[in-house]
Every structure is written in C-alpha cells, then in structure tokens.
Description:
Shape: elongated
CATH topology of the largest domain: Herpes Virus-1
Number of helices: 3
CATH class of the largest domain: Alpha Beta
Largest sheet: 2 strands, antiparallel
Number of domains: 3
Helix content: 10-25%
Radius of gyration: 26 Å
Order of helices and strands: EEEEEEHHEEH
Number of strands: 8
Structural class: alpha+beta
Strand order of the largest sheet: 1-2
Amino acid sequence: xxxxxxxxxxxxxxxxxxxxxxxxxxxxxxxxxxxxxxxxxxxxxxxxxxxxxxxxxxxxxxxxxxxxxxxxxxxxxxxxxxxxxxxxxxxxxxxxxxxxxxxxxxxxxxxxxxxxxxxxxxxxxxxxxxxxxxxxxxxxxxxxxxxxxxxxxxxxxxxxxxxxxxxxxxxxxxxxxxxxxxxxxxxxxxxxxxxxxxx
Length: 199
C-alpha cells in the first residue's frame, strides 16, 4: 500500500503473498476482521457484501448525510437486513467505536445480529464494551427514578422528599411519563396509578 518496508500483515488467501501495514490497510482497501482468527485480506481477496442492492439516486449516508455513490464498494456499505440503510465505511466505523458491542445496530431498522455479523465480516471493528456515552456519566441521571412529590400542596408530614415504596406515603409516578411524582393523591383517592396534569 505505502511501499515502505516491514509490513506485518499478510493476506490470508491461499497463494497470495501481499503484505501490508495494519495502519495502511484501510487506505489500500484491505479488510481486517477483528474477531475469531483475526484474518486480513488484500484489496483483491477481501470479502464482498452478498446483499443484492444498489442505492437509489441521491442516496445519502445515514450518519453524515453525504452522498454514498451509485453502488456498493469498499467505502460504501449497506445494511444486510433492511437493504435501505447505506453508510460510508468511515462513518459506520465511528458509530461502532462509540456504540460498542452492546448497542451497535443498524441506525435505520435497528437490526442487531445480522447487521453486527455483516459489519464484522466487512472489517468494521466493534469494541467489546458498552457505549462510550455511558462512560463519562453524562446520562447517569436518566437511570435515576424520580423521587419527590410534585403535588401543588404536599400533605406529607415528612415533606416532598419523603417517598416510601409502600404504605400511606407511597410515591406514585405518572403512569404516562414517569417524570413527576405524587404521594398526596394516593392518600385522597387510594389509587394505584396516577397521571400528572401535563399528561
């Protein structure tokens, strides 16, 4: 690919003696599979997508929204499940790095297994970890249950912050949005569900 010395990767196709550096593989149209035997293939012997599909005119990458061209190629990949989602190789690789193994799926049809298998075969590296957006704690608050009474007048002697799991001051979350709580309507109406005024 680059013409320099010391390539450590050799094409796995029997009889092919082409070698390349791992960082040069993408530039040269080579495919390295990051699973199983970790095989690598040169630009002539790399796996091709078996899906019989061609992008319609003016089809764009679902990730960057730039045109994908008029056919499948090394740099243009289609989802094998829906056959409507087209991506640039670089775009879907970035998506895979951020999503990780547990959340990587087709952004269009949400297919997981078939999509993941095809992308791995085509040389997309998917790290075996959770999504990167969970690492920094940015969305940690989304996993916390609402825990205060939002009634206009809270009747609880312990105040709005007191929330029992059972009993007379059980906090009921809105059965539609779960974004508001109330333990005062429970006392008035003795109900097991409650809906906030917004819903």
